[in-house]
Structure formats: structure tokens, C-alpha cells
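Q: Hi! First time asking for a complex rather than a single chain. Here are the components, and I think there are two in total. Is that enough to go on?
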Amino acid sequence: MSPKHVEEMYDAVIVGAGAAGLSAALGMLHSPDIERLKDSGIDPKVLVISKLQPLRSHTGSAEGGIAASLSNVEQDDWHWHYYDTVKGGDWLVDQDAAQLLAQYAPQTVVNLERMGVAFSRTDDGHIAQRRFGGHTANFGKAPVRRAAYAADRIGHQILHTLWQQCVAAGVTFAEEWYVTDLVLDEAGTRVAGVVAYDTHTGDVHAVRSRNVLLATGGAGRLFHTTSNSWDLTGDGMALTLAAGLQLEDAEFVQFHPTGLAHTGILLSEAARAEGGVLRNADGEAFMERYAPEHRDLAARDVVSRSIMAEIDAGRGVADPKDPHGPKDCVWLDMTGIDKDHMEQVLPQVVETIRDYANLDPAVDWVPIKPTAHYTMGGIPITTDGEVYRWQPATDGSAGKRVIVEGLYAAGECSCVSVHGANRLGGNSLLDACLFGTRAGASLAARIADAPVDDPMADESASEDEELTAPVDRAAEARKEEVAALLAAADSQDASDSDTDDNPYQLLADLGVAMERAVAVRCTHDTLSTALAQLHDELAPRAQALHAHSDVRVFNQEITAIWEAQHLVALADALLAATQAREESRGSLQRLDYPTRDDEHFLAHSMVDEHHDISWQPVHIVDFPPKAREY
Amino acid sequence: MSGMDVASATVTLRVNRFAPRPERERAARSGSPFGRKSSPFGSSSASARRRPRGKQWTQDYVLHVRPETTVLECLLTVKRTMDPTLAFRYSCGHGMCGSDAVSINGTPTLLCTATVGEWAKHAPAAASIDDEGFRHTGSPETIDSSSSDSNIANAHGDNAADLGVIELAPLPGFPVQRDLIADIDPMLNQITKLAPYLKADGVLATTDEGKINVFEYLQRPEQLAKYEMLSNCIACGVCEGSCPVFAGGDAFIGPAALIAVSRFVNDSRDTATAERLDMIDTADGVAACQSVRACSRHCPRGIDVGEEMWQIVARVRER
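A: Yes, that's all I need. Here is the structure of the assembled complex.
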């Protein structure tokens, strides 16, 4: 669906319609500021742009739960949640943000329930909760049931409920529109709008807006093996880099240990919680050697690293679907779990293995390998969702955050730094909903201050001109680019398509290169090799891509070309940031720098598109860094 | 294509393709509804209205795959190695997002859950339906394989096993936009028109002394069980494409919209039951359902849509 017309000027444009984007829309519309504005007869002009149809967001694939110390099942305390989050993130967490996350988690979950989420229930009707890795009582003493869940479909429930509430609130959507540019004003200090490509028609729109919120999700498609949907191409992060802004902690990518080889589809942690055991080519239950205490249920990054160490030592196995392929998997042995029990408590896991591996987990060992799952880093934001530039310390002054006026971000594409170097399960939906709502509320205050439709204001009209010109210029440039991409389809000979490049092939090649260089572990050499390949081969190929059909309607190749270019730019920044961090922390394992180095790297990396890297101190409030042991 | 090994075989994807004519070339619409040629078949005027103008053709792609490969994986291989212009929606790839509903061998289902082994069949079974809704009964010689000369199977395998043909077309009942992409906005519009959101009383639970003691609405597991399955609907449109009433072009709000209503009618927290039942007690609502139950067959979330239709119809009539 597309809006009937594009407004001259918007109060706010939200890019992305997953948990974060929809939470932001609702947080804004339900805020007292906007309610007052509406009471005075002014309707804010808001547009939610999504590259997908409604309800297709990858939020819907989240399975396990959303963490909150509700104490519905056993005693819990938000301070414990706060501590677990800091520790899980290997102390690269901004503790002021993590405190908000833990403190307002119960409120967030209750609000979701009251909006309609079909949570699983306790016998007396409260929201049910289950255990999740790394969530403990009494500051690490014992596991605690903290994850509120809806069978194994919590993401689906939250996504659909948020969308339903947006329907109730009358939110205007531009669906299957792809944002190609984030536009700032001339000085680069204030947002001016976005340029969007309507895939239905192939039209380019200049979307001018006084406020923009990016909620585009992660970038799992940087890697060949990923649990992410095909659409997670890091668009928001790449748009931010292209606008001359920085990314924070881009080097931290979580690999979930048990992706079903070679699909990357997630097999829930619950498979191991119920008794599944990882085995190498010799049949050895190798986790005993790496984590004697927690074995197969150690933290995600620990298990992923152990699996890769086995594979690197030559004890990996080939995917039975590709028996002559690389031995880059290990076995997940679930045969010890009672068959009936397995069907009952792991229905989704069993179904996935049957449907996508054609194996019976009650009888067969299942090939798995770590799968790219979550980007901890992203667009740097304050706890109110405002995007900022990090201005490093100079001789005279301390480093400081300089807010980009009117620009916001939320969800996986952003980094408020509650996840630090490694995210805990159950904290991603919480981050998206909680900080999405907060960003929406802070957006509302700015809108209420100076609404587009304010009958009293005439000065703002001239200020709008400063926003209009750069957006229109960017839109013109994109129109020309689209015409050129389509024209190339016209001129080329269809018969030489064998040797011809296309974005789908490029994405596959990029995924393989990135996986080889940085999946789970890396060294200076693997990073240098990947950077060289990126600069010498992949980036030039990305720039040379063109369409193979000149029909504008649903020309998917056009958006795929931009997605490929976005991923290449993001890969470049990620590799550069990884190269600069000469330590191992959380999800990042440098084989050449195997230990954590708080003296030099207890800091957030801030990288821009020119590989200019500065370091921002971590906010330590309550928990001084110590060794992370489970 | 490292997966070429002894266990693989060839399969032919026979794709119904469509590329709309650019707007400027399109003939001006006839101003009068009486100008349309009448047809003895009731549905043909509806399907003619839904069919945009453009180039229509059938294209074969021959691939070397293992039987357990999904049809979506096949199409992604086509995009990557043979034809980047082929258009189809896809996202999560494992049956949760609901974006890739199409017609496979005439049956609506999801690309990512359908496997080659399950759907490939040998000619002449792959009868195609032409523009007017007739099946070709002869050999499918009209099929033009303009890309099969570039297929990768020829290099390998005259002796490789042939799994047969899989015919792909856009989801029935919706206007085609390009290749396998259909415009499912009519379904989403029907759903949104029926107030698909929880209308609860907004009251916080309190103790006898009036203190708030529970913030969430309480709902016991057996109350949840009454609508939990319905809340799993992913709005893919498979049930709508399977419904002969809806896909046949008659006025019917469709099974997906009724499931959405039923989800709230059966939710103990919702207080708008009477209002919701009124909304679907219309000629194009429950009265249009013919209880064919084709809607149940391929629901990817396992909802027995036909049975649920029956229940909600009964609920409306029993008032």
C-alpha cells in the first residue's frame, strides 16, 4: 500500500515497520504531547516507510521470549537483570542504558500484553516466564525464569499486535518502498528527510521531513550462514555511513551456535536445554573440554567459539546434504531426549529439522554450525533515541556527543549500547520495544514544539526551505541513477547473461568472503585479506551492477543492487572497526589478541565511512569491570 | 552449486511470467461498464477486471537439485545464476513471514515450505490454465523455454534422474503485478476494515481495598487456548487463494479476515464481541462462506480454517 500522495513536509518519517519502528510510531502517537496537539486540532503528518509488506518484518521470527523481572513465576529483581545484561555484554555496556532497560522491562511487557499479545500463561492467568541463558537471580547465583514467552512465537505475537495497534491509531504506511538516501541539511547538523523508491512503480520520491527515525533492523546478510531473513541488509546503518555519520561497535556480531547447516535457520537454545549435546567428527561431546561447568549450555559466544575451534582443528563434519563439501559443521545429538517429550517441548525445532534437513532428530545426529544472528553495534543513539556524532577529546576538552537534530534510531540498527559485546537472549525484543517507545516519545516532544501544520507559525516555512533543497537534489540524483540502471538492461545482449554479474551473485560472494574472514573468529591476516578482496573485487563489482530488465514495476533487481552496495559499505566499516580493536571481548575473538584488554579497549569504537576510528568511553555506573565467567 | 552429487536430479520449474506494460503505453480505460463484452460465465468479468495488461509468457528453468530442496531455494538459484529478472516475494525463508504464497501446480502454498520432491511431477500432469480459465488437455507444446539453453543441467546430466516439472503461478484470487507477485492488498484491506485490534476494558485489577495488584489482564491457559491457534495466522493469503468463492471473484471478505475477527471474538480479554459479530453478519461476510473447506488444506500455521469458519458462522447465527 502506498500513501495517496506524498506531503510537502512531514513531521516525522519512520523507516522500518518491525518491533522498533512500530513501537516508535505508537510511542509517539500515544504520548501526551501528541494527544494535546490533536486536541488543539493539529494532526501530525507521520509516514511509516517499509521495504516489506505489513507483518513481514523479521521481528516475527523471534522465538524464545522477552526478558522482564515480572516475578510471575519466581522471585526476580530488575537489579539482577541489569547486572546480567552488563556481564553478558562483557562490560562494554553503557550502564545507564542497561539500567533503563532492566527497570522499565516489566512495564514494557505489561503494555504489550494490554495491547493484545497472546502471552503464554501461568495457571492463575499471569504472563508465564521461562529460563534463558545468562539470566540469573542474585547477581549470577542461579538461573531465573525471566523470559516472558508466547509458546515459541513471541516475535510473531508482538509484531502482529503492534501492527494491529497502528491500524487502530490510523498510521499511514508506505509499503514496499525502499529508502535510498538519508538526507541531512547543508551543514550536516540536522535531518532533512529521505529519498524513497516505490517498488510498485519504480518512482523515486523526495520525502522531506523535520524528523526521521531509522528502525531498519540488522545486517545478518553480511554472512553466508545467517538466521536473518533475506531483507536484513543493514540498510539503516549504511544510510547513516553514507550521510557522513558514524557507527558504534560495528565489530560485534553475535553468532548463534546452532544454525541448521547450511540453511542457517535457527535451532532454539532450548534444544540443548532439553538435553541436546554437541559432538565432533569423532563423536566426542567436546563442550566438556571448553566449559566444564555449563558445557553445552554455556553462553552463546563461548559455544560458538568452541564449535569453530573444533572445526579449525579438523574435527568438523560435512553437511550430509553436501557430503563432498567443506567439513564446517558439528553434530547436534538429540537422540538422548525422549521422543514424545521432544515433540511436546520442542515442536518448532523438530519441525525445522524434519522439513529443512530431512532428518529425524530422535534417530539422526543433526549438522549445525554457528549462524550470524544479531548486530550488537549500530547507529549511535542516546537513551532517548537521538542519533549523535562522537566528537573525540582534544587537548583542551573532553570528548562529547553532538546530537544530529531531528534524527533518531531504534532497534537492532541502533546502538544505545545495552548489549555491549554480546547480547543476552530475550533482550533484543525488549530493546526494540522499550527504546523504540522512548524514541517515539522524544520525537513527539519535538513535533509538538513545531508541528508542520501549526497555524501560528510562519517562520518555520523558511526554515523548511533549508530542508527541501537537499532532499530534492538527492531525489533527482537517484532518479537519474534508476534511469541509468534500467537503460543498461535495454542495451545489453540477453544471451551473454551467463558471464554477466548480478546483485544476487555478489551478495553470495560477499557472504562467503565475510564468513571466511570474521565469522566467530579472526586475525589481522584474515581481516586484511577480506579488506583487499572488498576493495579490489567486490566494491568495484557493486558499483558496476545494472538491471537486466527495463520494466519498472517490481524490478526487484534495482533494490537488490542498492542492498548489495549497502552491505559492501557496511562490510568495509565492520572490517575496519574489527581491525582496530586489538583484543578479544564478547562475540569478537581475535586469535592474535586472545584476551580482553580493558586498559586500551574498554571503549566503544566509532567508525565512519573513511575508516576514521575514534573511541568513546563506556558509561560505567554501578558495576566495575571484572572477569566474565559462567 | 557445490551440491551436485549422485543424489541430485533435474527438475523443471515452469513459471507463469508476467511483465506489465508501462503506464504510458496502456490503452485508455473504457469509460463505460456496458462496453465490456459479456460472458456466459459469471466469473470471467471479474477476472478480466483483475488482469492488468502486459506481456504474459511461460518460462522453463531446469535445475540440478536434491529432492528435499525447497522451491524457494530453487528460485533463488535461478535469480543468482540464470535470470535475475524473475520476480517473487520472499523474506524469512522458513514459513514465518508469510510473504511467499504462490500457486504450485495449481495449489496455493508457500514457496519456502514446498520441496521439489513433494511437488515435481511428470508430464502430462502439469496442465496449465489459460487466460479464460480453460485447461490445455494436449501436450504442453505452447511452453516456450527461452532460457533452457542456458541451464546448468545440460552440462551434467543426460543420465541424471529427472524429477519432472513444477508449475508456478501467482496466488489465485488476486491481481497479478509481476511474475509471481500478486497484489494482496484486498486481503489486508478487508482485515483492517474489521477493527483487528484488542478492545479491552482498560481496567487494572485491584484488591478489595482498591489497590492495584495486577497490571496485565489475567487470562487462564484454557482461555488462551480458545484463540491461541487463531492468533498464529501470518496473513499469507493461502486460504484466500484456495477459496473458490473468494478466488472465484464473488463478493466475500474472505477466510483470512474472518479468522482475524474470530481471533478477537474468542479472546477473553476482548469486550467487543457483539460489535464484531455484527460486522461480519453481512452478505459478503459469513453468508458468503459455502463451507467448501478448501481453505484448510495448506494453511502453513496448521489452522483448520474451514472448521473455524464453521464455528464463527454458527456463533453469528446463534445470537
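A: The longest strand of chain B covers residues 9-20. Let me know if you'd like any chain examined more closely.
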